[in-house]
Amino acid sequence: MSTWSGGRTLGTVAILFSFLLVGCAARLGSEALTPVAASAGGKTMQIYVATTRERDLSQNAFTANLANALNFARFSVSVPPNHKSGKIEMPTATPDPERDFAVVDRAALSEPEFRQAVTHQTNTQRKKHKVFVFVHGFNNTFQESLFRITQLQADMKIDGIPILFAWPSQGRVGAYEIDKQSANYSRDYLMALLTMLSSNSEVSDIMVVAHSMGAMLTVEALRQLRTEGKDRVIARLSRVVLAAPDINARTFRTNVQAIGPLKPPLLVLVSKDDGALRASSFLDGCIARAGDIDVDNPIVREAALKEKVQVVDISRLAKHDDLGHDRFVSVAVLYSRSHEKTLRYRNTAGTFIFTDDDTFLRPIDIGNRVAQ
Question: Is the residue at 252 inside a domain?
Answer without folding.
Answer: yes
